[in-house]
Description:
Blueprint: H1 2-11, E1 16-18, H2 24-35, E2 40-45, H3 46-50, E3 60-64, H4 67-77, H5 87-95
Parallel strand pairs: 1-2, 2-3
Transmembrane segments: 16-35, 71-93
GO molecular function: hydrolase activity, hydrolyzing N-glycosyl compounds
Keywords: Membrane, Transmembrane, Transmembrane helix
Amino acid sequence: MAIKLGKVLANEKIKLIYGGGNMGLMGLVATSAYVKGSSVLGVIPRMFKENALYGPTICRELPIWSIPKRLAIMFDTADAFITLPIGFVVAILTNYHR
């Protein structure tokens, strides 16, 4: 599912902005989209990067200082959101505006 989604994003020339790294389903989506030619930006907190909590980001990476800043960048930049069935960040993004 994740690899197919990445291919669809690339085929439709949809830019992907995500939380960075190569872990989990979003890592698969990002890698698949990037390999197929999509523009991909990983917005990753420096603390995650410095503590090696994520694998390397295959695409362009924007390191930032805080989770709220990360979410603000993603919300201000994106036209739409796709949530996948995994993890804490999905719960935050899903309930952010409630």
